[in-house]
Amino acid sequence: MASPAPRTPATSALPTSPTASSPRSRETSPSKIPVRVNSKRVAVPELKAALERAVRAKGTHYSNILAFSVYWDDDNTLAKEDNQTFIAMMRDMFDVPCETFVLQSKSPIPAWDLTLQLIKAIKAKLKNQKPSLLVFSYAGHGVINYLDELYFSSRNRKKLVSWSTVQSDLTPHGLAMDLFAILDCCHSGSATTGSPNSTHVLAACGAPVWARSRTSGISFTERVARAIRPIFNSGQVSISTEEIFHAVQKETPAGAYMSRFSSHSGAKLIILPFKVAATSGSGISSSGASSSGLKSSPRPSLPSSLPLRPHNRETQVLVMLTLEGKATEVVRDFQKVIETMPAKFQIKITDAFETNASAGVFVRMTWEAFARLLSTVNMEPLLPIIGPSLVGAQLREVRTIPAREKLPFRERPQRKE
Protein backbone atom coordinates (compact mmCIF):
# COMPACT_ATOMS: atom_id res chain seq x y z
CA MET A 1 0.00 0.00 0.00
CA ALA A 2 1.30 3.40 -0.89
CA SER A 3 2.34 5.61 2.00
CA PRO A 4 0.49 8.88 2.63
CA ALA A 5 1.50 11.48 0.09
CA PRO A 6 1.53 15.20 0.83
CA ARG A 7 -0.28 17.58 -1.43
CA THR A 8 1.82 19.18 -4.12
CA PRO A 9 1.79 23.00 -4.07
CA ALA A 10 -0.26 24.47 -6.88
CA THR A 11 2.00 26.18 -9.37
CA SER A 12 2.18 26.74 -13.09
CA ALA A 13 5.89 25.97 -13.07
CA LEU A 14 5.63 22.29 -12.23
CA PRO A 15 8.21 20.41 -14.32
CA THR A 16 5.58 18.11 -15.78
CA SER A 17 2.87 20.63 -16.54
CA PRO A 18 1.66 20.67 -20.17
CA THR A 19 3.35 23.99 -20.91
CA ALA A 20 6.66 23.01 -19.36
CA SER A 21 7.14 19.44 -20.44
CA SER A 22 4.80 18.28 -23.13
CA PRO A 23 5.92 18.63 -26.76
CA ARG A 24 2.42 19.82 -27.59
CA SER A 25 0.17 21.84 -25.35
CA ARG A 26 -3.60 22.03 -25.70
CA GLU A 27 -6.31 24.19 -24.25
CA THR A 28 -8.94 22.03 -22.60
CA SER A 29 -12.52 22.90 -21.80
CA PRO A 30 -13.71 23.04 -18.18
CA SER A 31 -14.05 19.73 -16.39
CA LYS A 32 -17.27 17.82 -16.87
CA ILE A 33 -16.88 15.58 -13.86
CA PRO A 34 -20.22 15.16 -12.04
CA VAL A 35 -20.79 17.37 -9.00
CA ARG A 36 -23.00 16.77 -5.99
CA VAL A 37 -26.64 16.91 -7.01
CA ASN A 38 -27.75 17.99 -3.54
CA SER A 39 -25.91 21.29 -4.01
CA LYS A 40 -28.69 22.52 -6.29
CA ARG A 41 -32.37 21.88 -6.93
CA VAL A 42 -33.47 19.84 -9.92
CA ALA A 43 -36.91 20.09 -11.49
CA VAL A 44 -38.64 16.74 -12.03
CA PRO A 45 -39.28 17.31 -15.79
CA GLU A 46 -35.59 18.10 -16.30
CA LEU A 47 -34.57 15.04 -14.30
CA LYS A 48 -37.01 12.86 -16.25
CA ALA A 49 -35.52 13.98 -19.58
CA ALA A 50 -31.99 13.29 -18.32
CA LEU A 51 -32.92 9.80 -17.12
CA GLU A 52 -34.52 9.00 -20.47
CA ARG A 53 -31.40 10.11 -22.36
CA ALA A 54 -29.24 7.85 -20.22
CA VAL A 55 -31.51 4.83 -20.67
CA ARG A 56 -31.69 5.28 -24.46
CA ALA A 57 -27.90 5.56 -24.83
CA LYS A 58 -26.27 3.14 -27.26
CA GLY A 59 -22.76 1.81 -27.59
CA THR A 60 -20.31 1.92 -30.49
CA HIS A 61 -18.72 -0.96 -32.37
CA TYR A 62 -15.00 -0.23 -32.18
CA SER A 63 -12.87 -1.13 -35.17
CA ASN A 64 -9.66 -0.68 -33.17
CA ILE A 65 -8.93 -1.27 -29.48
CA LEU A 66 -5.58 -0.39 -27.95
CA ALA A 67 -4.42 -1.09 -24.37
CA PHE A 68 -1.67 0.97 -22.75
CA SER A 69 -0.21 0.52 -19.25
CA VAL A 70 2.07 2.86 -17.29
CA TYR A 71 4.06 2.65 -14.04
CA TRP A 72 7.30 4.09 -12.59
CA ASP A 73 10.68 2.37 -12.58
CA ASP A 74 11.26 3.16 -8.88
CA ASP A 75 7.79 2.08 -7.76
CA ASN A 76 7.41 0.44 -4.34
CA THR A 77 3.68 -0.40 -4.49
CA LEU A 78 3.92 -3.59 -6.61
CA ALA A 79 2.75 -1.64 -9.65
CA LYS A 80 4.83 -3.87 -11.93
CA GLU A 81 2.73 -6.84 -10.82
CA ASP A 82 -0.43 -4.82 -11.46
CA ASN A 83 0.86 -4.07 -14.94
CA GLN A 84 1.22 -7.81 -15.54
CA THR A 85 -2.32 -8.37 -14.28
CA PHE A 86 -3.66 -5.73 -16.66
CA ILE A 87 -1.77 -7.27 -19.60
CA ALA A 88 -3.19 -10.71 -18.79
CA MET A 89 -6.72 -9.36 -18.40
CA MET A 90 -6.70 -7.60 -21.76
CA ARG A 91 -5.07 -10.57 -23.50
CA ASP A 92 -7.02 -13.46 -21.97
CA MET A 93 -10.50 -11.93 -21.90
CA PHE A 94 -10.48 -9.30 -24.65
CA ASP A 95 -7.76 -10.51 -27.03
CA VAL A 96 -6.22 -7.03 -27.00
CA PRO A 97 -2.41 -6.63 -26.98
CA CYS A 98 -1.07 -4.21 -24.42
CA GLU A 99 1.84 -1.81 -24.67
CA THR A 100 3.68 -0.99 -21.45
CA PHE A 101 5.62 2.20 -20.79
CA VAL A 102 7.88 2.50 -17.74
CA LEU A 103 8.31 6.08 -16.57
CA GLN A 104 11.93 6.83 -15.70
CA SER A 105 12.41 8.68 -12.41
CA LYS A 106 15.82 9.95 -13.59
CA SER A 107 14.50 11.35 -16.85
CA PRO A 108 14.65 15.17 -17.05
CA ILE A 109 11.05 15.36 -18.29
CA PRO A 110 9.22 12.00 -17.96
CA ALA A 111 5.93 13.50 -19.14
CA TRP A 112 7.55 14.33 -22.48
CA ASP A 113 8.77 10.73 -22.83
CA LEU A 114 5.28 9.39 -22.13
CA THR A 115 3.65 11.79 -24.58
CA LEU A 116 5.98 10.76 -27.40
CA GLN A 117 5.31 7.08 -26.75
CA LEU A 118 1.54 7.61 -26.60
CA ILE A 119 1.58 9.48 -29.90
CA LYS A 120 3.62 6.70 -31.48
CA ALA A 121 1.33 3.96 -30.17
CA ILE A 122 -1.87 5.74 -31.19
CA LYS A 123 -0.63 6.52 -34.69
CA ALA A 124 0.54 2.94 -35.20
CA LYS A 125 -2.79 1.47 -34.12
CA LEU A 126 -5.26 4.04 -35.39
CA LYS A 127 -4.50 4.20 -39.08
CA ASN A 128 -8.00 5.30 -40.05
CA GLN A 129 -10.86 7.42 -38.78
CA LYS A 130 -13.02 4.48 -37.73
CA PRO A 131 -14.31 4.40 -34.12
CA SER A 132 -11.53 3.33 -31.77
CA LEU A 133 -11.08 2.74 -28.06
CA LEU A 134 -8.03 3.19 -25.84
CA VAL A 135 -7.96 1.30 -22.53
CA PHE A 136 -5.41 3.00 -20.27
CA SER A 137 -4.03 1.74 -16.96
CA TYR A 138 -1.84 3.44 -14.37
CA ALA A 139 -0.74 1.91 -11.06
CA GLY A 140 1.49 3.51 -8.46
CA HIS A 141 1.71 6.71 -6.46
CA GLY A 142 -0.60 9.66 -7.04
CA VAL A 143 -0.65 13.15 -5.51
CA ILE A 144 -2.85 16.22 -5.91
CA ASN A 145 -2.13 19.92 -5.69
CA TYR A 146 -4.24 22.54 -3.95
CA LEU A 147 -6.52 22.69 -6.98
CA ASP A 148 -7.22 18.95 -6.58
CA GLU A 149 -5.43 18.21 -9.86
CA LEU A 150 -4.04 14.68 -10.11
CA TYR A 151 -0.37 13.88 -10.78
CA PHE A 152 1.34 10.50 -11.26
CA SER A 153 4.29 10.55 -8.88
CA SER A 154 7.62 8.78 -8.69
CA ARG A 155 8.56 7.09 -5.42
CA ASN A 156 10.45 10.09 -4.02
CA ARG A 157 7.86 12.50 -5.49
CA LYS A 158 10.59 14.49 -7.23
CA LYS A 159 9.15 13.70 -10.66
CA LEU A 160 5.49 14.23 -11.52
CA VAL A 161 3.36 13.62 -14.58
CA SER A 162 0.15 15.63 -14.79
CA TRP A 163 -3.04 13.69 -15.51
CA SER A 164 -4.29 16.67 -17.52
CA THR A 165 -1.32 16.23 -19.86
CA VAL A 166 -1.85 12.48 -20.11
CA GLN A 167 -5.59 12.66 -20.79
CA SER A 168 -5.10 15.25 -23.53
CA ASP A 169 -2.69 12.83 -25.22
CA LEU A 170 -5.07 9.92 -24.67
CA THR A 171 -7.99 11.73 -26.29
CA PRO A 172 -6.52 13.60 -29.27
CA HIS A 173 -8.83 16.04 -31.00
CA GLY A 174 -9.83 15.06 -34.50
CA LEU A 175 -9.72 11.31 -33.84
CA ALA A 176 -12.84 9.23 -33.19
CA MET A 177 -11.25 7.58 -30.16
CA ASP A 178 -12.95 7.00 -26.81
CA LEU A 179 -11.09 6.38 -23.56
CA PHE A 180 -11.56 3.97 -20.67
CA ALA A 181 -9.04 4.70 -17.91
CA ILE A 182 -8.35 2.45 -14.91
CA LEU A 183 -6.45 4.44 -12.29
CA ASP A 184 -5.00 2.54 -9.32
CA CYS A 185 -3.36 5.30 -7.29
CA CYS A 186 -3.90 7.76 -4.47
CA HIS A 187 -6.49 10.48 -5.18
CA SER A 188 -7.48 8.78 -8.44
CA GLY A 189 -11.07 9.96 -8.04
CA SER A 190 -9.90 13.51 -8.80
CA ALA A 191 -9.16 12.66 -12.44
CA THR A 192 -11.15 14.93 -14.76
CA THR A 193 -11.26 15.48 -18.50
CA GLY A 194 -12.26 18.13 -20.98
CA SER A 195 -12.17 15.91 -24.05
CA PRO A 196 -15.12 15.96 -26.48
CA ASN A 197 -14.74 12.18 -26.87
CA SER A 198 -16.51 9.77 -24.53
CA THR A 199 -14.31 9.16 -21.51
CA HIS A 200 -15.02 6.80 -18.61
CA VAL A 201 -12.72 6.71 -15.58
CA LEU A 202 -12.70 3.82 -13.10
CA ALA A 203 -10.77 5.02 -10.04
CA ALA A 204 -9.54 3.00 -7.07
CA CYS A 205 -10.66 5.63 -4.57
CA GLY A 206 -12.07 9.11 -4.15
CA ALA A 207 -10.23 12.40 -4.50
CA PRO A 208 -9.35 12.90 -0.79
CA VAL A 209 -8.11 9.35 -0.17
CA TRP A 210 -4.39 9.06 0.55
CA ALA A 211 -3.55 5.47 -0.34
CA ARG A 212 -4.58 3.11 -3.09
CA SER A 213 -6.32 -0.01 -1.86
CA ARG A 214 -4.42 -3.27 -1.41
CA THR A 215 -6.82 -5.00 0.96
CA SER A 216 -5.98 -8.60 1.91
CA GLY A 217 -3.02 -8.40 -0.46
CA ILE A 218 -5.23 -7.64 -3.48
CA SER A 219 -4.81 -4.38 -5.38
CA PHE A 220 -7.58 -2.53 -7.16
CA THR A 221 -6.25 -3.66 -10.55
CA GLU A 222 -6.49 -7.27 -9.40
CA ARG A 223 -10.02 -6.67 -8.13
CA VAL A 224 -11.03 -5.40 -11.57
CA ALA A 225 -9.62 -8.49 -13.27
CA ARG A 226 -11.26 -10.83 -10.76
CA ALA A 227 -14.63 -9.11 -11.11
CA ILE A 228 -14.66 -9.42 -14.91
CA ARG A 229 -13.63 -13.09 -14.99
CA PRO A 230 -17.01 -14.66 -13.96
CA ILE A 231 -18.84 -12.54 -16.55
CA PHE A 232 -16.38 -13.64 -19.22
CA ASN A 233 -16.80 -17.29 -18.20
CA SER A 234 -20.61 -16.98 -18.34
CA GLY A 235 -20.51 -16.74 -22.13
CA GLN A 236 -21.57 -13.10 -22.33
CA VAL A 237 -20.27 -11.62 -25.59
CA SER A 238 -19.35 -8.16 -24.30
CA ILE A 239 -19.23 -5.98 -21.21
CA SER A 240 -19.79 -2.27 -20.68
CA THR A 241 -17.65 -0.12 -18.42
CA GLU A 242 -20.72 0.33 -16.22
CA GLU A 243 -21.05 -3.44 -15.81
CA ILE A 244 -17.37 -3.59 -14.87
CA PHE A 245 -17.92 -0.95 -12.19
CA HIS A 246 -20.96 -2.84 -10.90
CA ALA A 247 -19.01 -6.10 -10.73
CA VAL A 248 -16.10 -4.44 -8.92
CA GLN A 249 -18.40 -2.90 -6.33
CA LYS A 250 -20.10 -6.24 -5.68
CA GLU A 251 -16.73 -7.79 -4.83
CA THR A 252 -15.40 -4.95 -2.66
CA PRO A 253 -13.69 -6.54 0.36
CA ALA A 254 -14.33 -5.23 3.84
CA GLY A 255 -12.11 -2.27 4.66
CA ALA A 256 -11.36 -1.36 1.04
CA TYR A 257 -11.89 2.14 -0.28
CA MET A 258 -15.03 2.73 -2.34
CA SER A 259 -14.02 2.91 -5.99
CA ARG A 260 -15.36 5.73 -8.16
CA PHE A 261 -16.72 5.87 -11.68
CA SER A 262 -17.05 9.04 -13.73
CA SER A 263 -18.56 9.50 -17.17
CA HIS A 264 -17.63 12.47 -19.33
CA SER A 265 -18.74 13.97 -22.64
CA GLY A 266 -22.18 12.52 -23.22
CA ALA A 267 -24.28 9.44 -22.61
CA LYS A 268 -22.66 7.09 -25.13
CA LEU A 269 -21.80 3.65 -23.76
CA ILE A 270 -18.30 2.19 -23.90
CA ILE A 271 -18.53 -1.55 -24.56
CA LEU A 272 -15.64 -4.01 -24.77
CA PRO A 273 -16.22 -7.23 -26.75
CA PHE A 274 -14.94 -10.39 -25.09
CA LYS A 275 -12.48 -12.66 -26.85
CA VAL A 276 -14.17 -15.26 -29.02
CA ALA A 277 -11.20 -16.80 -30.85
CA ALA A 278 -8.78 -19.31 -29.39
CA THR A 279 -5.76 -17.19 -30.24
CA SER A 280 -4.78 -14.06 -28.39
CA GLY A 281 -2.43 -11.13 -28.80
CA SER A 282 0.85 -10.83 -27.03
CA GLY A 283 2.00 -8.04 -24.79
CA ILE A 284 4.32 -5.43 -26.24
CA SER A 285 6.71 -3.72 -23.89
CA SER A 286 8.41 -0.39 -24.34
CA SER A 287 10.27 1.73 -21.84
CA GLY A 288 11.71 5.15 -21.39
CA ALA A 289 15.06 3.38 -20.98
CA SER A 290 16.86 1.30 -23.57
CA SER A 291 15.11 -2.04 -24.14
CA SER A 292 18.05 -3.82 -25.74
CA GLY A 293 18.84 -5.64 -22.50
CA LEU A 294 15.30 -6.80 -21.79
CA LYS A 295 14.82 -10.53 -21.37
CA SER A 296 11.73 -12.46 -22.26
CA SER A 297 9.57 -13.48 -19.32
CA PRO A 298 6.71 -15.95 -18.89
CA ARG A 299 3.31 -14.72 -20.00
CA PRO A 300 1.49 -13.24 -17.00
CA SER A 301 -1.70 -14.85 -15.76
CA LEU A 302 -4.65 -13.49 -13.84
CA PRO A 303 -4.41 -13.74 -10.04
CA SER A 304 -6.35 -16.62 -8.53
CA SER A 305 -4.96 -17.04 -5.03
CA LEU A 306 -8.07 -15.84 -3.21
CA PRO A 307 -11.68 -16.86 -3.96
CA LEU A 308 -14.30 -14.36 -5.00
CA ARG A 309 -16.89 -13.35 -2.47
CA PRO A 310 -20.38 -14.87 -2.78
CA HIS A 311 -23.07 -12.73 -4.39
CA ASN A 312 -25.71 -13.32 -1.71
CA ARG A 313 -25.19 -9.89 -0.13
CA GLU A 314 -25.07 -7.60 -3.13
CA THR A 315 -24.38 -3.96 -2.42
CA GLN A 316 -26.27 -1.05 -3.91
CA VAL A 317 -25.64 2.68 -3.73
CA LEU A 318 -27.55 5.29 -1.75
CA VAL A 319 -27.95 8.71 -3.39
CA MET A 320 -29.73 11.90 -2.37
CA LEU A 321 -31.59 14.03 -4.92
CA THR A 322 -32.95 17.51 -4.24
CA LEU A 323 -36.18 18.03 -6.21
CA GLU A 324 -37.43 21.55 -6.77
CA GLY A 325 -41.03 22.39 -5.95
CA LYS A 326 -43.72 21.52 -3.43
CA ALA A 327 -42.41 18.52 -1.55
CA THR A 328 -45.43 16.20 -1.65
CA GLU A 329 -46.12 16.90 -5.32
CA VAL A 330 -42.57 16.50 -6.64
CA VAL A 331 -42.05 13.27 -4.70
CA ARG A 332 -45.26 11.88 -6.19
CA ASP A 333 -44.24 13.01 -9.69
CA PHE A 334 -40.78 11.51 -9.30
CA GLN A 335 -42.27 8.21 -8.15
CA LYS A 336 -44.27 8.07 -11.39
CA VAL A 337 -41.10 8.74 -13.40
CA ILE A 338 -39.05 5.94 -11.86
CA GLU A 339 -41.92 3.46 -12.17
CA THR A 340 -41.46 3.63 -15.95
CA MET A 341 -37.72 2.91 -15.81
CA PRO A 342 -36.50 -0.40 -17.31
CA ALA A 343 -35.95 -3.17 -14.78
CA LYS A 344 -32.18 -2.95 -15.26
CA PHE A 345 -32.18 0.66 -14.09
CA GLN A 346 -34.77 0.56 -11.35
CA ILE A 347 -34.58 3.32 -8.74
CA LYS A 348 -36.27 2.93 -5.37
CA ILE A 349 -37.18 5.76 -3.01
CA THR A 350 -36.09 4.85 0.51
CA ASP A 351 -37.10 8.10 2.23
CA ALA A 352 -38.02 11.71 1.49
CA PHE A 353 -38.16 14.92 3.49
CA GLU A 354 -39.55 18.38 2.95
CA THR A 355 -36.93 21.11 2.82
CA ASN A 356 -37.01 24.81 2.08
CA ALA A 357 -38.98 25.04 -1.22
CA SER A 358 -37.85 21.57 -2.26
CA ALA A 359 -37.77 17.90 -1.30
CA GLY A 360 -34.75 15.84 -0.29
CA VAL A 361 -35.23 12.33 -1.66
CA PHE A 362 -33.02 9.37 -0.77
CA VAL A 363 -32.93 6.70 -3.47
CA ARG A 364 -31.12 3.39 -3.94
CA MET A 365 -30.06 1.69 -7.15
CA THR A 366 -27.56 -0.79 -8.51
CA TRP A 367 -24.03 0.37 -9.21
CA GLU A 368 -24.54 -0.27 -12.93
CA ALA A 369 -27.62 1.96 -12.98
CA PHE A 370 -25.72 4.60 -11.02
CA ALA A 371 -22.84 4.54 -13.51
CA ARG A 372 -25.21 4.81 -16.48
CA LEU A 373 -27.19 7.70 -15.02
CA LEU A 374 -23.98 9.59 -14.19
CA SER A 375 -23.66 10.39 -17.88
CA THR A 376 -26.68 12.72 -17.73
CA VAL A 377 -27.43 13.31 -14.04
CA ASN A 378 -25.09 15.04 -11.60
CA MET A 379 -25.02 12.98 -8.43
CA GLU A 380 -22.62 11.70 -5.82
CA PRO A 381 -22.79 8.36 -3.98
CA LEU A 382 -23.52 8.71 -0.27
CA LEU A 383 -22.47 5.19 0.69
CA PRO A 384 -22.77 1.55 -0.39
CA ILE A 385 -25.64 -0.28 1.32
CA ILE A 386 -26.49 -3.94 1.82
CA GLY A 387 -29.98 -5.31 2.31
CA PRO A 388 -33.12 -3.49 3.45
CA SER A 389 -33.37 -0.59 5.86
CA LEU A 390 -32.63 -1.45 9.47
CA VAL A 391 -35.08 1.09 10.84
CA GLY A 392 -38.11 -1.12 10.25
CA ALA A 393 -36.42 -4.26 11.55
CA GLN A 394 -37.55 -5.64 14.87
CA LEU A 395 -35.01 -4.77 17.50
CA ARG A 396 -33.68 -7.63 19.56
CA GLU A 397 -34.72 -7.46 23.19
CA VAL A 398 -31.75 -6.94 25.46
CA ARG A 399 -31.92 -8.88 28.72
CA THR A 400 -31.20 -6.75 31.77
CA ILE A 401 -28.83 -8.06 34.40
CA PRO A 402 -30.34 -7.87 37.92
CA ALA A 403 -28.38 -6.03 40.54
CA ARG A 404 -26.57 -8.05 43.18
CA GLU A 405 -28.63 -6.53 45.93
CA LYS A 406 -31.45 -4.10 46.32
CA LEU A 407 -30.44 -1.10 48.28
CA PRO A 408 -33.30 0.50 50.23
CA PHE A 409 -34.21 4.00 49.23
CA ARG A 410 -33.14 6.42 51.86
CA GLU A 411 -34.42 9.89 52.10
CA ARG A 412 -31.85 12.60 52.36
CA PRO A 413 -31.76 14.01 55.89
CA GLN A 414 -33.58 17.27 56.15
CA ARG A 415 -31.53 20.24 57.20
CA LYS A 416 -32.73 21.72 60.44
CA GLU A 417 -33.95 25.27 60.26
Automatic annotation (TrEMBL):
Compositional bias (Low complexity): 1-23, 285-308
Protein known as: Caspase family p20 domain-containing protein
Query: Could you tell me which residues belong to the region Disordered?
Result: 1-34, 285-309
